[in-house]
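If you are new to this repository, start here. Below is one unmodified record pulled from the training split, so you can see the exact layout before writing a loader.
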Amino acid sequence: FLGASPGKMLLGLKIGTGKGEIADTRIYFNRYLAKNSASLLMVLAKTTKISVFGDFGNVMGMVIFLGYLMTLLPHRQGIHDMIAGTAVYRKKDLDNDSIQKKRHKKDIYGG
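And here is the target side for that same chain:
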């Protein structure tokens, strides 16, 4: 995992931890599972022929869709990011650790 989809790469964005650190593969995988849980449940329903997985997949799809609207709020995190403990940053900010430095200064100086 590179920490960004092709679209995010074009826009100069990258996935990091909620603390502004570069994430590892486990965190990217957890974000993928949270973001695509509805699709994964639908596939599970089709392969096992257990319809309750499909019903649950529909509900999860609505929850995740509404969770995308949360990116319009000031903290700009979708529900899948909150579940996985991730956030989307500008690549230059994440790679330069400037987010961590800004937060560290804020914690020390209260500013």
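Two things worth knowing about this chain: The CA atoms of residues 31 and 77 lie 12 Å apart. The first strand starts at residue 13 and ends at 17.
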